[in-house]
């Protein structure tokens, strides 16, 4: 194989000023303003100024203010897919899905902003409701794809869709309880939600 010429390996010069902050810094700046001014009254311009970045830089990372509380949601969905893919093929379907849901909700308690801060804002801000519906749909689709692969049906069929909706309902019920009780354990609530649902269905039969 021929060696590359000098022209071929020359890298283009860096355009613009170096990044002065990380995504974590931007999110911390945004959450400070959300706490001080409220979500509705905080603008993207104000967040950019607080974080010390150009407005153009902020919009390169987040298409809108509504995306900031969700962080890098695309990466969390990739992690969710990996958790489901790692489940043993002989594990009962409901255990594989719910086990992945529980692990998906295991977050670093030292992160800033905290997961509790994020979810309190997402679930408690009316302006975020429509955006949340889109994110929930993307999350349910990951489950539907996995269930479809395990059962040999299409992701749009009834069972994959139902499992996605049930998993979301269990998660939201656990989150509402968790946010209302600072001493509660989120992962335990998620596990208990599934246990109680199965007990209810067992009595109903």
UniProtKB/TrEMBL annotation:
Keyword Transmembrane attributed: no
KW DNA-binding (keyword) present: yes
Keywords: DNA-binding, Transcription, Transcription regulation
Pfam families assigned to the protein according to its UniProt record, in alphabetical order: TetR_C_14, TetR_N
All residue ranges annotated as the HTH tetR-type domain in the record: 20-80
Region called Disordered, residue ranges: 1-21
DNA-binding region: 43-62
PROSITE patterns: HTH_TETR_2
NCBIfam families for the chain: mycofact_TetR
Protein name listed in UniProt: Mycofactocin system transcriptional regulator
Higher taxonomy: Bacteria, Bacillati, Actinomycetota, Actinomycetes, Mycobacteriales
């Amino acid at each position: 194989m021929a060696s590359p010429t000098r022209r071929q390996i020359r890298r283009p010069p860096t355009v613009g000023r170096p990044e002065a902050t990380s995504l974590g810094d931007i999110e911390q700046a945004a959450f400070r303003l959300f706490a001080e001014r409220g979500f509705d009254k905080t603008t993207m311009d104000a967040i950019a100024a607080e974080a010390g970045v150009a407005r153009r830089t902020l919009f390169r990372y987040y298409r809108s203010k509504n995306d900031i509380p969700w962080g890098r949601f695309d990466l969390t969905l990739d992690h969710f897919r990996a958790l489901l893919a790692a489940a043993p093929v002989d594990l009962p379907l409901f255990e594989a899905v719910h086990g992945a849901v529980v692990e998906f909700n295991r977050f670093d308690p030292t992160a800033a902003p905290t997961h509790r801060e994020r979810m309190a804002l997402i679930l408690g801000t009316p302006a975020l409701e429509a955006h949340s519906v889109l994110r929930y749909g993307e999350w349910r689709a990951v489950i539907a794809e996995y269930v479809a692969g395990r059962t040999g049906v299409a992701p749009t069929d009834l069972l994959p869709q139902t499992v996605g909706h049930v998993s979301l309902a269990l998660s939201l019920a656990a989150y509402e309880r968790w946010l209302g009780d600072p001493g509660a354990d989120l992962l335990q609530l998620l596990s208990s939600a599934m246990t109680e649902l199965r007990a209810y269905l067992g009595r109903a039969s």
